[in-house]
Amino acid sequence: MPVLNRIAALAPEMTEWRRWLHQRPEIQFDLHQTAEFVAERLREIGVDELHEGIAQTGMVAIIKGQGEGPTIGLRADMDALPITEKTGADYASQTPGAMHACGHDGHTVMLLGAAKYLCETRNFAGRVALLFQPAEEEGGGGQVMVAEGVMDRFGIEEVYGIHNAPNVPFGFFRTTQGALMAAVDTAYVTATGRGGHGATPQDTIDPIPAITAMVQALQTIVSRNVSAQDELVVSVTQIHVGSANNIIAESGWFCATIRSFDPAIRNLAEARFRAVVTGVAAAFGVSVEINYERGYPPTVNDADRALFAASVAAEISGGDMVDTQARREMGGEDFSYMLEARPGAYLFMGTGAGAGLHHPAYDFNDEAAPVGASFFARLIERRLPLR
Question: What is the CATH number of domain 183-294?
Fold first, then answer.
């Protein structure tokens, strides 16, 4: 696999960086140790500009090439997840209840490795904007960075990102022209009846049968309201009600995740969700409160940039290791906000066998970091060639 020689030589250092970050996971926007570590590395590397405190703990670093040219953005997410690690690694998380279970520590190191190479070689014309982003998992740090004006402030014309993919062959890249990941909406429903003694249910209005009926009826949104060829997921993921075995609760709540691609399907799903919940509530005599939150939009690649990025991936891994017509996924990604603001592309990069993302036994494959760093570096050299 033709990883750039200089980046291959950086592999031990990148592994050291990654494992330091892995031991110190931080959540959402509260990435103070992480941001300090990344900023220190960027200063040592010798970036031309470093702008900190964007989206609280995010930052943008600028590397200037030889001569004038456009500015290309490369993005890495830095946050971890509220999961207790079960890898057994000697570099496992030292923060109780938090771990890098999605490989953002690896993404950060890929971009740092590319930055070191690009600062040393500067074999490009124009500028690179390195976007180190907080709060991808929850909080929409990508949206915050865009809202704070990073695209205009730094003159970014295109933007690219990659995500590791465990249990995909090592070095295999997947992307597509158009929508790659889904829009993600979340609904919270509180049903309130009249509580009382478990021995006298006739004197109560029990929210449990109402919630149970709502959850069952919501399954018909997909099966009876959209075509089997349309892509929609409605999953109830939490139910909370009751406090003792002899008490009928006053109220209870549940939440659901709703994922789609098409704006019309997204609107239909919300309308049907509200209609089903309020209809069932009326039938059971409970009052209901619905908090329906529109979340990350679909992650939509620009067709030309996706093909370009795939051609770069083919240089790194070989043409038979790139799929340009990957099936789109129902997962969500706040890189979508950056792709709404500027054309670009998002790709998945295989890291070989291992526990899946968001699993307590997951660990990023350190051997993949030079591959991702080489992809980023070669993308810049191809997109901003010296004349």
Answer: 3.30.70.360
